[in-house]
Amino acid sequence: MNFDFADLIYDIVADCSDNVPTRYLVNDACVLSGKPLVSASALRMEGQLTVYNYCGGPCYRCLYPVPPPPETVTNCSDGGVLGVVPGIMGCFQALEVLKIASGQGSSCGQQLVMFDALDTRFRSIKLRPKQAGCAVCGENPSVSQLMDYEAFCGSAATDKCRKLNLLSKDQRITVQDYKSIMDNAEPHLLLDVRPPVEVDICHLPFSLNIPLSSLEERKSEHMQLLQERISQLKQQMEGDCRPPVYVICKLGNLSQKAVQVVEKMSGSEVDRITVKDISGGLMAWAKRIDPTFPQY
Q: Helices 281-288 & 175-183, crossing angle to 10 degrees?
C-alpha cells in the first residue's frame, strides 16, 4: 500500500473501495492534504453516502477511530450486493463531486444518506461533529504521515473474497468428507446459513436454511425449527450420541461464524450436538465435487 499524500493533486477524492484498510488510507491522505472525501458504499440492498473532511465536518476516523475486528466485516464479495444499488449510489456520489467542484457545495458534510432499495426509500442521519481527539484531524493529531494500513486494520487491502480461519481443524471438515457422509447416508443435519436470496439460487438437497443473522439474533421461530430438526435427528440415531450438525455457506466464512454462535447456544436440544463447518462452502463443493453445481 505505497502511497504519498504529497502526490494527491486532485481537488476532490471519491472513495469507491470495498475494504477497511483502503478507507482509512484514503481518509488520512485527504485529511493530510486538505481534500474533501466523497464516500459511498453498498451492500446487499442498502447504500450509504457522506462527505468527509468537508467544511469543518468529521473525517472517517472521527466516526471510526478503531478498526472493527476483521471477522465482523462483510464486503460485497462475501455478502453480495444488488447490482443496481452501487449504480444508484455512484450517481449520487458523482452528483456531490460535481456540486462541490462547481461551488454549489454539498449538504452531506455532516449527514449520512442511507438508501434502502427494498423499500425504495432515502433517509438522512446527522453525524457527530469533528472530534477534537481524532488521531488525524484533531487538535493534537498523532497521525502525521501514512502508515501500514493492513497492519493497522489486521486485514488485507483487497476487495477479493477473504478466507477466515476462526475454527480449529477438528471443528471443520472438507467437502470430500461431507460427500462421503452423504454417500454413506449417515444421519446428520445440514445447516445453510446464507441469506434466503442466495439459497434460492442454489443449495444442497435436504439442507435447512437459517441465516446467520437469525442465529445471532436468536429469532424464536428459527430456534424452534432448529431444535425440532435436531430432535428428529436424535430419534433417528441409536444410543446417547451427539447428533452431528454440519454448517455450510458460499465460501466458508459465514459458516465458521455460525459454528461459534451455535456452540454458545443452550437449550433442550441445541446444547447436545456436535457442530462443524464445511470448509470452503458451496464454491468448494462446485470446484471439487460437482462441476455442474451453480457458481455465483
A: 70
